Structure formats: structure tokens, C-alpha cells
Amino acid sequence: MCSVPLAGEPVWREDEDTNIMLKNLTPMILKWNKDNIGNLFRRKNRLISRIEGIQRTDDHVNNRFLCKLEKDLKKELDEVLKQEEIMWFQKSRGQWIQDGDKNTKLYHTKTIVRRRIKLTLSKMMRVNGLKTPSRLTI
After folding, report:
1. pLDDT in tens, 53-97
2. Do both 102 and 56 map to the same domain?
3. pTM for the model
4. Which of 47, 48, 90, 135 could form a disulfide with 77 if both were Cys (CB 3.0 to 4.6 A apart)?
């Protein structure tokens, strides 16, 4: 396994092949992810269980300690949910980049179909004397 370079040390060496550099970078990124992020799903489930456990107690509303703990756990859960949302966004973006133009026709067709459906619905509403909403959602 590669060691993490010190501050000021170059991460990339010009004499190395890009594939080798990426292969050396991968374990460092995985270690960083494990140390700093961990398993988001496990953390989320653990936080939800703890919050539910606090809320099941009869006296949690009157107990200052439990109220503060619940508030702190909810704040931590919000952060985990934000991280999870970012992770899914990055994964979907990565898939889109990987697919490239392969899906462009699909997305374009999907947009055209939605536009036609909206147009047809608004025409039908006008014919029937109904007011067309400012934003028609499908």
C-alpha cells in the first residue's frame, strides 16, 4: 500500500504512467473514505435506531439530557443524509458521464414525450372549458 505524501510533496510523478498513478491513488482514497466518511448506510440506520429509542421512552420530553441527545443525533442524521444525497448524486453523475452520448437519445425522446403530453392535456382542458394550471405536472 502507498503512503500518503507529505504536504509540499508532489502527488503525481511525471515519469509514472497514469494508470499506475491511479492504481496507487485508489488505496489512499479508500482509506480516507473509511476514516472520514465510513459506511453511510450503517451510520444512518444506527442514528435512526437511537433516535427512535429515545422517542420510545416515556419521559424523553421532560428529560433534558434525552432532549439534547435527540437534538444532537438529529443534527448528525441531517449531515449523514446530506452526505448520502451527495453520494447518490455523484454516482448518478458518474454513470451519466460513463454512458456519455449513449443515453442522449433516450433523454431527448423522454423530454419530447412529456412536452407532447402536457400540450395535449392543456388543449383538452381548454376544449372542456377548464382553466389550465400555470404549471402542469405529469
Report:
1. 999 988 888 899 999 999 999 999 999 999 888 888 887 776 666
2. yes
3. 0.51
4. 47
